[in-house]
C-alpha cells in the first residue's frame, strides 16, 4: 500500500497543544492513549510512539485559560494506527480502562474512534482501509460517517495484546475549526499546495496531497466568523507540515507571501497562520 506520510507527500508530522494541568495530561497520554514520554520540563512534555519521533507536545502556560467554545482552532488531531487489529486492541484497552468515547464511525476510507483529553482537546484514533478500496469520483474521494462494526473490531483485536501505541503510529491528519472556507481554501491550495478531495456542502472541506483521503480537515461548525481563541487557552499551538524538499517548502513560503500572507522566521523555523489564526510550522 502506498504510504501517505512520507516523501513526496506533504503531510502533518506533529502537533503542539496547550493543557491546563501538565501532570494530569502526561498521565492521560501515557496510560490511556499509550504514548511514550520522550522528554519533560516543568511546563512541557513531548510524546512519541516509537521512542524517538515526536508526535505530540503538550504545554502548560503560566496563565492558562480553559478551552474556549465557539472559536477556531483544533477540532481533533488524528493518530493513524498501522493495522485493523491494533484498532481492535485499543478498543479492548479503552473498555478495560473505562474510557468514554465521544463517537465511533466507519468513514469508508477508514475506521475511527473519537475521544477527548482531560481539557477537551479532540483526538481521533483510526486505521485506514487499503487505498485501492477507496472510491474516487474524479478528484473527489467518497467518505461517509456510518456505524462502526465494533463487535467485529473487538474480535479482530482480541489476539493483539495492547502495549501502548504501535511504534509505526503516525499523525495521520488534523481537523481544524475555521472561520470561513473561501480564503481558507486559497491559503491551503494555492499557498501550501494541497488539493481538495471532499466537500461537505458549504460547511467543510478535506484536503490532501498525493490522493490521500485527507491530511487536513477544515470546518465552520463553530460558526462562520468564529474568532480565534486566546493564545494562552487550551487548544492548538501549532501543527507541523513536512515538505518533500527545502525547495518545495521555500516555494510554498513564496506563494503564501505573494498571496499576502505573513510568514515568520523564528530561530530558522518558518511559521505561517491560516486566515483563521491556526498556526503552522513549515518543515
From TrEMBL:
VOC domain ranges (all copies): 11-128, 170-283
Transmembrane segments: none
Highest taxon, organism lineage: Bacteria
Keywords in alphabetical order: Metal-binding
InterPro entries named in the record: Glyas_Bleomycin-R_OHBP_Dase, Glyas_Fos-R_dOase_dom, Glyoxalase_1_CS, VOC_core
PROSITE patterns with a match to the protein in the record: GLYOXALASE_I_1, VOC
PANTHER family (UniProt xref): CATECHOL-2,3-DIOXYGENASE
Protein name: Glyoxalase
Protein's organism: Sutcliffiella horikoshii
Amino acid at each position: 500500500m502506498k504510504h501517505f506520510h512520507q516523501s513526496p507527500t506533504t503531510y502533518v508530522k506533529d502537533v503542539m497543544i496547550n493543557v491546563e494541568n501538565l501532570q494530569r495530561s502526561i498521565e492521560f497520554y501515557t496510560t490511556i492513549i499509550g504514548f511514550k514520554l520522550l522528554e519533560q520540563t516543568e511546563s512541557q512534555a513531548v510524546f512519541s510512539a516509537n521512542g524517538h519521533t515526536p508526535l505530540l507536545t503538550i504545554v502548560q502556560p503560566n496563565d492558562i485559560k480553559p478551552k474556549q467554545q465557539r472559536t477556531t482552532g483544533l477540532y481533533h488531531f488524528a493518530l493513524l494506527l498501522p493495522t485493523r487489529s491494533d484498532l481492535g486492541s485499543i478498543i479492548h484497552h479503552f473498555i478495560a480502562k473505562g474510557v468514554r468515547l465521544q463517537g465511533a464511525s466507519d468513514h469508508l476510507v477508514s475506521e475511527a474512534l473519537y475521544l477527548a483529553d482531560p481539557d477537551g482537546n479532540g483526538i481521533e484514533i483510526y486505521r485506514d482501509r487499503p487505498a485501492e478500496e477507496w472510491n474516487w469520483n474524479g478528484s473527489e474521494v467518497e467518505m461517509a460517517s456510518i456505524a462502526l462494526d465494533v463487535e467485529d473490531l473487538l474480535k479482530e483485536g482480541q489476539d493483539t495484546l495492547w502495549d501502548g501505541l504501535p511504534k509505526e503510529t503516525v499523525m495521520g491528519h488534523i481537523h481544524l475549526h475555521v472561520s470561513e472556507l473561501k480564503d481558507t481554501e486559497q491559503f491551503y491550495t494555492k499557498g501550501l499546495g494541497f488539493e481538495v478531495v471532499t466537500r461537505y456542502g458549504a460547511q467543510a472541506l478535506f484536503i490532501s496531497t498525493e490522493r490521500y483521503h485527507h491530511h487536513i480537515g477544515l470546518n465552520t461548525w463553530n460558526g462562520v466568523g468564529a474568532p480565534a481563541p486566546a493564545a494562552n487557552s487550551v487548544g492548538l499551538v501549532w501543527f507541523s507540515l513536512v515538505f518533500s524538499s527545502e525547495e518545495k517548502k521555500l516555494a510554498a513560503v513564496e506563494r503564501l507571501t505573494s498571496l499576502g500572507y505573513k510568514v515568520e522566521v523564528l530561530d530558522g523555523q518558518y511559521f505561517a497562520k491560516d486566515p483563521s489564526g491556526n498556526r503552522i510550522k513549515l518543515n
